[in-house]
Write a structure and sequence with these properties.
This is Lipoprotein. Keywords: Signal. There is one protein chain. This protein is an alpha+beta fold and about 300 residues long. It contains five helices and 15 strands. It is elongated and about 60 Å long. The chain starts with a helix and ends in a 5-residue tail after the last strand.
Length: about 300
Amino acid sequence: MKRFSVSALALAFALLLAACAKEPQVSKSGSDQPVQSASVSAPDAPAEPVESVRARLSELHAEWQNWPELAEREGYVLCSGRPVNQDGVERFLASYQAGEPASLTVLSYGSTIPMVYQIDFDGQGAMCATICKGEGQFEEAESAGVYSRATDYVFEGFGLVVPKEEEAERSELDAAPGEQLLAGGISPERAVQIARQANERLYAYRSAGDGAGFGARGVVIPDSIPEDPGPRADGIALDYRPAGGERLGERPCYRVETYREGEGDAYYDVLLVDARDGSLVWTIEMVNGSAVPIYDADQTYITCPAA
């Protein structure tokens, strides 16, 4: 009988220990909340095969006429015409800046051929993009950063521009050449100076062989180009003249025209300068008359810690 009692007690004690082992741990701080164990990262998931990525992008490209609907339904970023799901870009860039893995699918069409961008960031180094330009037409590219301007995001190295706002319509302001547009804004003389500086820096950048082609919407003048780049490589000296004003969307702007000697009254370039503070400059495309941003005094460069 005594032997049975000891065995029973031993069994009960073992059961008690097993039950205690299943109870959640209690923090030493006295809190009733259980201590959370450190999360263990799962093994890295295998990268999606290149063939699979390209097949998926080809399917999206084939549907390009339905992209507005796809963007609304699937959450893709549409960056032409009107920006759709721009918050997706902002979330991606926040992760990129924090060094956290993220992906972004962008559908782009408009003045260029339709293109699909699959942008991936693994938490270190550069962003990588697979770009589909049509059936069987793919490019791979890398980018170390994104320029954030008042009007758009420019993904360096991808040739990708995601607008922050709809493309603004141009309308003429009733203002004579050299007339002050805003009482608290910059003077027309200052606007001409800013237009000259931005345009000559842009020319110097493109002439160096590193810039985007003429008419490209994603050109950003790097800080390495001096404020006074000196004489143009083509030997042309432009005359910059105030030519009244325009309204670009809600922004009143000075219109500045450039002229070359011996060409009469035909202007060469048209630039618009934000009349409020001169912080933004656009050049006007000769083909379709749209305004292309070329200068933003307050632009920022977004990169990741490990880039």
